[in-house]
Amino acid sequence: MSAGLAAELCYTGAVRLRPSPATLRRYWPSATLTDGTSRGGGYMVGFPELTAPDPIRLLVSFGRPAVSQGRRDLAHTRGWADAAEVMAGVTRTVTVTEIFGTSFAPADRVRAFTAVVRTLADDTAPVAVWWPSSRLATPPGSEVGVVNVRHHDVTGRYVLDTLGLGPLGLPDLQCVCGALPPEALSAYLAATASSMIDGRGLKAGDVVPGLTPHQRWKVEAGPAFAAPERPVLTITPDGAA
Fold it and tell me: Is the pTM of this model over 0.85?
Protein backbone atom coordinates (compact mmCIF):
# COMPACT_ATOMS: atom_id res chain seq x y z
CA MET A 1 0.00 0.00 0.00
CA SER A 2 1.08 3.54 -0.65
CA ALA A 3 1.97 5.70 2.33
CA GLY A 4 -0.34 8.50 1.32
CA LEU A 5 -2.58 10.18 -1.22
CA ALA A 6 -1.06 11.81 -4.29
CA ALA A 7 -2.18 13.74 -7.34
CA GLU A 8 -0.51 15.48 -10.26
CA LEU A 9 -1.99 18.68 -11.64
CA CYS A 10 -1.20 18.75 -15.36
CA TYR A 11 -0.44 21.75 -17.60
CA THR A 12 0.31 22.32 -21.28
CA GLY A 13 2.55 25.34 -20.73
CA ALA A 14 4.29 27.43 -18.12
CA VAL A 15 2.79 27.38 -14.62
CA ARG A 16 2.52 30.41 -12.37
CA LEU A 17 2.43 28.74 -8.99
CA ARG A 18 1.16 31.35 -6.55
CA PRO A 19 -1.56 29.66 -4.50
CA SER A 20 -3.84 32.01 -2.65
CA PRO A 21 -4.58 31.57 1.08
CA ALA A 22 -7.99 33.12 0.40
CA THR A 23 -8.80 30.40 -2.14
CA LEU A 24 -7.64 27.71 0.28
CA ARG A 25 -9.87 29.11 3.02
CA ARG A 26 -12.91 28.71 0.76
CA TYR A 27 -12.37 24.95 0.98
CA TRP A 28 -10.98 24.74 4.54
CA PRO A 29 -11.40 27.95 6.58
CA SER A 30 -8.69 27.23 9.18
CA ALA A 31 -6.06 25.73 6.84
CA THR A 32 -2.60 27.33 6.90
CA LEU A 33 -0.38 27.77 3.84
CA THR A 34 3.40 27.92 4.28
CA ASP A 35 5.66 28.92 1.38
CA GLY A 36 9.06 27.25 1.65
CA THR A 37 10.24 27.87 -1.91
CA SER A 38 12.65 30.61 -0.83
CA ARG A 39 14.45 27.96 1.26
CA GLY A 40 14.53 25.38 -1.50
CA GLY A 41 11.35 23.58 -0.46
CA GLY A 42 7.76 23.65 -1.58
CA TYR A 43 4.45 24.65 -0.09
CA MET A 44 2.93 23.04 2.98
CA VAL A 45 -0.72 23.12 4.01
CA GLY A 46 -1.66 22.36 7.62
CA PHE A 47 -5.05 21.52 9.08
CA PRO A 48 -5.26 22.58 12.75
CA GLU A 49 -8.25 20.37 13.55
CA LEU A 50 -6.48 17.26 12.30
CA THR A 51 -3.86 16.61 14.97
CA ALA A 52 -3.16 13.15 16.35
CA PRO A 53 -2.28 12.62 20.06
CA ASP A 54 1.47 12.24 19.30
CA PRO A 55 1.05 15.18 18.34
CA ILE A 56 1.19 14.78 14.57
CA ARG A 57 -0.62 17.16 12.25
CA LEU A 58 -1.96 16.12 8.88
CA LEU A 59 -0.03 17.99 6.20
CA VAL A 60 -0.38 18.20 2.43
CA SER A 61 2.59 19.42 0.40
CA PHE A 62 3.24 20.43 -3.19
CA GLY A 63 6.41 21.53 -4.91
CA ARG A 64 7.47 23.59 -7.85
CA PRO A 65 6.34 22.69 -11.38
CA ALA A 66 8.32 19.83 -12.93
CA VAL A 67 8.69 18.46 -16.45
CA SER A 68 6.00 15.87 -17.17
CA GLN A 69 7.15 12.26 -16.97
CA GLY A 70 5.45 11.30 -20.23
CA ARG A 71 2.32 9.42 -21.20
CA ARG A 72 0.06 7.78 -18.65
CA ASP A 73 -2.08 4.69 -18.99
CA LEU A 74 -5.61 5.93 -19.70
CA ALA A 75 -7.13 2.50 -20.28
CA HIS A 76 -9.39 2.90 -17.25
CA THR A 77 -10.23 6.57 -17.59
CA ARG A 78 -13.91 6.35 -18.47
CA GLY A 79 -16.42 9.08 -19.16
CA TRP A 80 -13.96 11.70 -20.43
CA ALA A 81 -13.85 11.53 -24.21
CA ASP A 82 -11.05 14.09 -24.57
CA ALA A 83 -8.73 12.55 -21.96
CA ALA A 84 -6.17 11.12 -24.39
CA GLU A 85 -5.94 14.31 -26.45
CA VAL A 86 -5.62 16.54 -23.39
CA MET A 87 -3.09 14.36 -21.60
CA ALA A 88 -0.95 14.04 -24.74
CA GLY A 89 -0.30 17.80 -24.58
CA VAL A 90 0.85 17.87 -20.94
CA THR A 91 4.36 19.28 -20.48
CA ARG A 92 4.44 20.31 -16.81
CA THR A 93 3.03 18.91 -13.57
CA VAL A 94 2.68 19.97 -9.95
CA THR A 95 2.67 17.02 -7.55
CA VAL A 96 0.52 17.11 -4.41
CA THR A 97 1.34 14.61 -1.66
CA GLU A 98 0.02 13.80 1.79
CA ILE A 99 2.22 13.63 4.90
CA PHE A 100 1.38 11.75 8.13
CA GLY A 101 -1.99 10.79 6.66
CA THR A 102 -2.11 7.26 8.04
CA SER A 103 -2.72 8.65 11.54
CA PHE A 104 -6.11 10.05 10.51
CA ALA A 105 -9.54 8.86 9.40
CA PRO A 106 -9.89 8.27 5.65
CA ALA A 107 -12.76 10.76 5.28
CA ASP A 108 -10.72 13.56 6.89
CA ARG A 109 -7.73 12.73 4.72
CA VAL A 110 -9.74 12.85 1.51
CA ARG A 111 -11.45 16.10 2.52
CA ALA A 112 -8.15 17.80 3.39
CA PHE A 113 -6.37 16.54 0.31
CA THR A 114 -9.28 17.59 -1.88
CA ALA A 115 -9.15 21.11 -0.43
CA VAL A 116 -5.56 21.51 -1.63
CA VAL A 117 -6.17 20.01 -5.08
CA ARG A 118 -9.19 22.25 -5.63
CA THR A 119 -7.30 25.31 -4.43
CA LEU A 120 -4.54 24.69 -6.95
CA ALA A 121 -7.05 23.94 -9.70
CA ASP A 122 -8.75 27.29 -9.07
CA ASP A 123 -5.50 29.27 -8.85
CA THR A 124 -3.37 27.67 -11.58
CA ALA A 125 -5.86 26.42 -14.22
CA PRO A 126 -4.51 22.94 -15.01
CA VAL A 127 -5.91 21.05 -17.97
CA ALA A 128 -6.27 17.79 -16.01
CA VAL A 129 -5.51 16.01 -12.76
CA TRP A 130 -3.76 12.62 -12.76
CA TRP A 131 -4.36 10.32 -9.77
CA PRO A 132 -1.49 7.77 -9.66
CA SER A 133 -2.99 5.41 -7.09
CA SER A 134 -6.26 5.02 -8.98
CA ARG A 135 -4.68 5.38 -12.45
CA LEU A 136 -7.32 7.90 -13.42
CA ALA A 137 -7.28 11.23 -15.26
CA THR A 138 -9.99 13.76 -14.47
CA PRO A 139 -10.83 17.21 -15.84
CA PRO A 140 -10.12 20.04 -13.39
CA GLY A 141 -13.15 20.82 -11.28
CA SER A 142 -14.62 17.34 -11.67
CA GLU A 143 -15.25 14.81 -8.94
CA VAL A 144 -12.17 13.72 -7.01
CA GLY A 145 -10.39 10.72 -8.52
CA VAL A 146 -9.12 9.07 -5.34
CA VAL A 147 -10.99 5.87 -6.27
CA ASN A 148 -11.48 4.52 -9.79
CA VAL A 149 -14.03 1.85 -10.78
CA ARG A 150 -12.46 -0.21 -13.57
CA HIS A 151 -14.05 -2.58 -16.10
CA HIS A 152 -12.18 -5.74 -17.24
CA ASP A 153 -12.67 -8.86 -19.29
CA VAL A 154 -10.83 -11.46 -17.20
CA THR A 155 -10.71 -14.95 -18.74
CA GLY A 156 -14.17 -14.55 -20.23
CA ARG A 157 -15.77 -12.96 -17.19
CA TYR A 158 -16.79 -9.30 -17.05
CA VAL A 159 -15.25 -8.00 -13.83
CA LEU A 160 -15.50 -4.63 -12.11
CA ASP A 161 -13.10 -3.51 -9.40
CA THR A 162 -11.99 -0.42 -7.51
CA LEU A 163 -8.47 0.96 -7.42
CA GLY A 164 -7.32 3.61 -4.95
CA LEU A 165 -8.60 2.55 -1.53
CA GLY A 166 -5.23 1.07 -0.56
CA PRO A 167 -3.51 4.38 0.32
CA LEU A 168 -6.37 5.00 2.77
CA GLY A 169 -5.69 1.71 4.54
CA LEU A 170 -8.79 0.07 3.06
CA PRO A 171 -9.20 -2.99 0.82
CA ASP A 172 -10.32 -2.48 -2.74
CA LEU A 173 -13.53 -4.12 -4.00
CA GLN A 174 -14.26 -6.40 -6.93
CA CYS A 175 -17.31 -8.08 -8.41
CA VAL A 176 -18.17 -10.36 -11.33
CA CYS A 177 -21.03 -8.86 -13.33
CA GLY A 178 -22.77 -12.04 -14.44
CA ALA A 179 -26.11 -10.91 -15.89
CA LEU A 180 -26.15 -7.59 -14.01
CA PRO A 181 -25.85 -4.27 -15.91
CA PRO A 182 -22.25 -3.03 -15.65
CA GLU A 183 -23.14 0.64 -15.18
CA ALA A 184 -25.47 -0.12 -12.27
CA LEU A 185 -22.84 -2.33 -10.66
CA SER A 186 -20.17 0.33 -11.26
CA ALA A 187 -22.29 2.88 -9.38
CA TYR A 188 -22.84 0.30 -6.63
CA LEU A 189 -19.09 -0.24 -6.14
CA ALA A 190 -18.44 3.50 -6.19
CA ALA A 191 -21.09 4.07 -3.52
CA THR A 192 -19.77 1.20 -1.40
CA ALA A 193 -16.22 2.56 -1.63
CA SER A 194 -17.48 6.02 -0.62
CA SER A 195 -19.27 4.60 2.40
CA MET A 196 -16.08 2.76 3.44
CA ILE A 197 -14.15 6.03 3.27
CA ASP A 198 -16.85 7.59 5.45
CA GLY A 199 -16.28 4.93 8.10
CA ARG A 200 -18.47 1.97 7.22
CA GLY A 201 -16.66 -1.23 8.16
CA LEU A 202 -16.68 -4.01 5.58
CA LYS A 203 -14.93 -7.34 6.00
CA ALA A 204 -14.84 -10.90 4.73
CA GLY A 205 -17.87 -12.84 5.95
CA ASP A 206 -20.26 -9.91 5.81
CA VAL A 207 -23.51 -10.10 3.87
CA VAL A 208 -24.54 -6.79 2.28
CA PRO A 209 -27.58 -5.47 0.39
CA GLY A 210 -27.27 -5.66 -3.39
CA LEU A 211 -28.73 -3.45 -6.08
CA THR A 212 -32.16 -3.88 -4.50
CA PRO A 213 -32.96 -4.14 -0.76
CA HIS A 214 -34.04 -7.79 -0.93
CA GLN A 215 -30.75 -8.93 -2.50
CA ARG A 216 -28.15 -10.23 -0.05
CA TRP A 217 -24.60 -10.50 -1.39
CA LYS A 218 -21.65 -12.26 0.23
CA VAL A 219 -18.32 -10.54 0.94
CA GLU A 220 -15.13 -12.61 0.76
CA ALA A 221 -11.40 -11.89 0.79
CA GLY A 222 -9.41 -11.68 -2.55
CA PRO A 223 -7.29 -12.55 -4.47
CA ALA A 224 -7.48 -9.69 -6.95
CA PHE A 225 -8.79 -10.72 -10.38
CA ALA A 226 -6.86 -7.88 -12.09
CA ALA A 227 -3.47 -6.28 -11.39
CA PRO A 228 -2.04 -4.86 -9.27
CA GLU A 229 -1.90 -7.39 -6.46
CA ARG A 230 -3.43 -5.81 -3.37
CA PRO A 231 -5.90 -6.54 -0.55
CA VAL A 232 -9.34 -6.98 -2.14
CA LEU A 233 -12.83 -7.88 -0.97
CA THR A 234 -14.96 -9.81 -3.46
CA ILE A 235 -18.69 -9.03 -3.44
CA THR A 236 -20.62 -11.91 -5.01
CA PRO A 237 -24.06 -11.06 -6.45
CA ASP A 238 -26.89 -13.61 -6.31
CA GLY A 239 -26.46 -16.09 -9.14
CA ALA A 240 -23.13 -14.68 -10.35
CA ALA A 241 -21.14 -17.06 -12.47
Answer: yes
